[in-house]
Amino acid sequence: MRRSKTLRWQENRTFSCVHQPPVAEIAAAGSYNRGRWAEEILHTRGPITLELGCGGAETTLALARRDPTRGFVGVDIKGHRFWHAAKTVEVEGLGNVAFLRARIEYIDHYFGPGEVGDIWLTFSDPQPKNTKGTKRLTSPIFLRRYARMQVPKARVHIKTDSDDLFALAQKEPPEAGYEITRIVADIHAPLPTNFPADLAEILSVKTRYERKWLARGKRIHYVQLMRSPVNDQ
Ligand SMILES: C[S@@+](CC[C@H](N)C(=O)[O-])C[C@H]1O[C@@H](n2cnc3c(N)ncnc32)[C@H](O)[C@@H]1O
Fold first, then answer.
1. Is the pTM above the cut of 0.85?
2. Among 213, 53, 203, 29, CA closest to 108
3. Ligand 1 centroid from CA 129, angstroms
4. Is the pLDDT of residue 233 over 60?
């Protein structure tokens, strides 16, 4: 039987991998675990990989299982969406994964400069009416926030079914100091023979929303960005 949202929220409170600091307090002025994720919380080395708007966090789980020495955090404002992934983390004992209930608008209250490596944006809401980009997780406003946390040359991986978001992701990033390093119009069509095998493997992981859009005959697009190689953010 499908668990209700309330039961998922209740069970999330019992999971040590789930972090749910009061959103309003953090937004007002606070910070949470800033600078502590890799060594103190996850007992890993190097910068943390984030999946923002992770939902079921399928990509986070696949990445974390592949590299237990690195830390991974799935972030979403809707805790019930990552409940199943969090339960999987508890059952499998994946110590290198955490889930954070947070508004991505305030993401730099949770992660400090140079604390983050790659960022995955999987099927972010395209927000077509939000022309200023204050709600679209791929907009220059958000990219500038990510750049403050990311190490030089870290990547932002954008997976989307939306033709509008795909077009914007090829146009806007240079404004925020990101270089576009890879564009794939249809990741489920045969990839070029020289395409990196590890990236192809992760891109082949289908998220919940991806399965939904594929069932409706949509193509899945991918854009990869690279943060500026210098610390000028
Ligand atoms: C379309 S769903 C995609 C979920 C998942 N990545 C997938 O591919 O199945 C977008 C997710 O982003 C989350 N989200 C959107 N805007 C957010 C924000 N500003 N802060 C935190 N989470 C956000 C939503 O709660 C939702 O779970």
1. yes
2. 29
3. 17
4. no
